[in-house]
Amino acid sequence: MAHLPDENVEEILDTHGLDPVTENTVTDAETLREELQTIQDDGYALDCNQQIPGMCVVAVPLLNDANVLGSLSVATSTDRLKDSVYRSELIEHVRQGANTITNEY
Q1: CA 42 → CA 11, 22, 25, 35, distances in Å?
Q2: Cα distance between residue 5 and residue 65, in whole Å
Q3: How far apart are CA 95 and CA 89, in angstroms?
């Protein structure tokens, strides 16, 4: 959603809402918009405990010019991402994987 035009994000929010899945799920539209901006700025998404307690997902968009073709993601335990070195390395590996995919395909 981070790379969609604002009107598409609003349509999704209007249609589907932000029902909680876990106690960590973002359920406030303004908070979601802020997270989407952070994802755009950082170039990756980090979702911890929002869908499944104890699980984090690192995701990077697969971009062709400015078009999102898909994403590459890796799931791991929340505990493993508490280690900042591991977290940084995992994010970098997922970014490299996404770059390889978009450059070769």
Answers
A1: 24, 25, 20, 10
A2: 15
A3: 10
What's the pLDDT tens digit per position in 5-57? 999 999 999 999 999 999 999 999 999 999 999 999 999 999 999 999 999 99
- Which residue's structure tokens are 């070769």? 104
Alpha-carbon Rg for the chain, nearest whole angstrom, is 14
| CA-to-CA separations, 72 to 1, 18, 29, 41, in angstroms, rounded | 14, 23, 25, 17
Element (H, E) at 91: helix 84-104
